[in-house]
Amino acid sequence: MYTPGVKLLSGIVAAMIGLGLGVCSGCAAAPPPADASGRPADFAVSITVISTQDDPTLISALPRQMRPARYVIEADGSLRAAVGAGATPDIRPALTRRLDSAQMARLWRLIEESGFAEPEGASRLASEAAASELYAATTAVMSVTHAGTRAASAIDLEGGGAEAEAAALIVDQIAAWAWVRP
Fold first, then answer.
1. How far apart are CA 103 and CA 107, in angstroms?
2. pTM (2 decimals)?
3. Which residues, in sequence order, are bridge partners of residue 73?
């Protein structure tokens, strides 16, 4: 039915498609490489501080890390920030500034050393949205993406302990980079 030339051509096309799909699927499976500081290329963080306080006068008197806010740090260093009672996990704040590679490396170290980059732990959530019932105290809802994985946590900032202190330090550092007054 087909000439030998058409059969050969269709075989070559099929082999090329097969190779192309194999190459593409292999590329998708490998996580992006880390930079010289060890920070994964896809490292990104979002933190929402949900405060039990809604009075603007009282909010302004809170320590910077306890004020309601939404911070998003993208893999390219873009820092987005919204501060105030309307900051919720479902908003995308405006671009505030771009962090340099040293600041991104510091943030990665703080998060990695605290254990918040690990997908399993006492404060871990299935997603940021899963924290909606946990707002009885000032809570930091944190999502960390790196090496193709995501870890979400809800940390009671009023509860004390090493995890609360580490989260407060991270929030305070990001707030400082976002030019939030102490």
1. 6
2. 0.77
3. 45, 79
52-66 tens-digit pLDDT: 888 888 998 999 999
* Closest C-alpha among 180, 154, 138, 170 to residue 73: 170
Cβ-proximal residues to 34 (8 Å cutoff; 6+ apart), any chain: 40, 41, 147
> What gap in Å lies between CA 20 and CA 78, rounded to an integer?
34
> Phi/psi at 149 (nearest 5 deg)?
-120, 165
Instruction: Determine how many CB atoms are found less than 10 A away from the CB of residue 21.
Output: 10
Q: Using one digit for the tens of pLDDT, what is the confidence trace for 4-42?
A: 544 443 444 344 344 343 434 444 555 566 666 789 999
Structure token digits, residue 110:
């703080």
From the CB of residue 151, how many other CB atoms can be counted at a distance below 10 Å? Answer: 20
Q: Which helix (H) or strand (E) holds 154?
A: strand 149-156
174 token code pair:
């990001």
Domain topology for 44-177: Mago nashi protein (3.30.1560)
Instruction: Give percent above pLDDT 90 in the chain.
Output: 53
CA angle at residue 101 from 170 to 107, to 5 degrees? 15
Question: Is the CA virtual torsion 33, 37, 40, 43 positive or negative?
Answer: negative
Cα–Cα distance for residue pair 41/148, rounded to 1 Å? 10
Backbone φ/ψ region at 13: left (φ over 0), alpha (ψ -120 to 50), beta? alpha
